[in-house]
Amino acid sequence: MANEAVGNVKQAVGKATDNTKLQAEGKAQELKGEGQQAKGEVKDAVKKGVDKV
User: Fold this and answer.
1) Which residues 6+ apart lie within 8 Å of 35 measured at CB?
2) What is the mean pLDDT of residues 29-52?
3) Which residues of 19-52 are buried (b: 16+ CB within 10 A; e: fewer)?
4) How do residues 4-13 score in pLDDT, each as one tens digit?
5) What's the chain's average pLDDT?
6) Total domains, the chain
7) Number of Cβ atoms within 10 Å of the Cβ of 13
8) Residue 18 — very low, low, confident or very high, per pLDDT cuts 50/70/90?
9) What distance in Å separates the CA atoms of residue 6 and residue 31, rounded to the nearest whole number?
10) Measured distance CA(40)–CA(13) in Å, rounded
11) Could you tell me the pLDDT band of residue 15, with boundaries at 50, 70 and 90?
12) Quick one: CA torsion of 34, 35, 40, 41, rounded to 10 degrees?
């Protein structure tokens, strides 16, 4: 979640300052955060499934 938030801020600052490099870094960081979140959700789902067995 933190990476997503920081990524969004970087994108906004990059857009406001017309800095395409900062925008790209922000998008990459946002996607990294989304990937981490998805990984955590899968891990939780697997753990819940194992706990039921």
Assistant:
1) none
2) 93
3) eeebbebbeebbeebeeeeeeeeeeeeeeeeeee
4) 999 999 999 9
5) 94
6) 1
7) 13
8) very high
9) 11
10) 28
11) very high
12) 70
Q: Tell me the residue type at 4.
A: E
* Integer angstrom CA distances of residue 9 from 2, 20, 34: 11, 13, 15
- Tell me the C-alpha distance between 12 and 27, whole Å: 10
* Domain encompassing residue 38: 2-52
Residue 53 has what pLDDT? Answer: 66
Token pair, residue 5, equals 């938030």
DSSP letters spanning 34-47: HHHHHHHHHHHHHH
Can you read off the two tokens belonging to residue 20? 């395409």
51 pLDDT band (50/70/90 cuts)? confident
